[in-house]
Amino acid sequence: MVGASRGLDHASQIRKSRKLRGCRRSPFPYRIELMASGERLVERVLGRAANAQLANAIFQAALAEHPDRHIALRRGTRLIGEAANKAELHDAWDR
Hints:
Elements: H1 2-21, E1 30-35, E2 42-49, H2 52-65, E3 71-75, E4 78-83, E5 89-91
């Protein structure tokens, strides 16, 4: 039992150090972004998701809602999928 309590103490120390550094893990790591026309800037975040399946569903819905706009799907800073329109779907899910 000593090891179990030590593990909890270690975990709480890590959480405290993250708070002090301003680091937080989001419960929704996936972001679906509407990009500004003709630019590489995010105009608006259309949705966030906790898992890949939900993120892909939101991404597909965003494509249907904004067929002529550039939509990006990210996990953190990593680009997972993007589409300039429905004909140009480049999706990492299918690779």
